[in-house]
């Protein structure tokens, strides 16, 4: 999907689920081969994580987009921890201009919810410098 300037908006695509380390490594290798950003919901045993990496695309988020992502993730994670079904949870969040990870979720649905927040910022090329 391209906007009126010809830029692709990958943020509306479904974030893939990668089950196990081998699947994550294969998906990351594909991202490197195609010079595309890496974004995935990752399943390790009974826990889920969400990881993004713009390095395969040789891109970085703008400072404003990085701050926006940080704020949106903080709000999303606070809501998750307050949810009696999901929380209290031990959640870890790392956000930078090119790489980030949020873990560990007990439910795939919750990880996908967080992945959608990340995708909305990270995969928009207008947020890259």
What does it look like?
- This protein is of the alpha+beta class and 129 residues long.
- It has a single domain (10-127), classed as Diaminopimelate Epimerase, Chain A, domain 1 (Roll).
- The chain has three helices and five strands, in the order E-H-E-E-H-E-E-H.
- The protein has helices spanning 21-34, 63-82, 108-122; strands spanning 17-19, 38-44, 47-53, 92-95, 99-105.
- The chain has a five-stranded mixed β-sheet with strand order 1-2-3-5-4, sandwiched between helices.
- A hairpin with a 3-residue loop joins strand 4 (92-95) and strand 5 (99-105).
- Helix 2 (63-82) packs antiparallel against helix 3.
- The longest helix is centred in the middle third of the chain and has 20 residues, at 63-82.
- The radius of gyration is 14 Å and the shape is flat.
- It starts with 16 loop residues before the first strand and ends in a 7-residue tail after the last helix.
- Residues 1-8 have low confidence and may be disordered.
Task: Provide a concise account of the structure shown.
The chain is of the alpha+beta class and 129 residues long. The chain has helices spanning 21-34, 63-82, 108-122; strands at residues 17-19, 38-44, 47-53, 92-95, 99-105.
